[in-house]
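Entry 14. Ran structure prediction on the chain below.
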Amino acid sequence: MAIASGGSVGHEGPSVAIGAAVGSVVARFF
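Output, structure tokens:
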């Protein structure tokens, strides 16, 4: 959860977490 909240990565933490979540969802459909 540290990455999702951006605690350990910084400002890019949330963006990376969201991107990974979206990517996994897209991968499920395709």
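The CA atoms of residues 9 and 18 lie 13 Å apart. Will compare against last week's run tomorrow.
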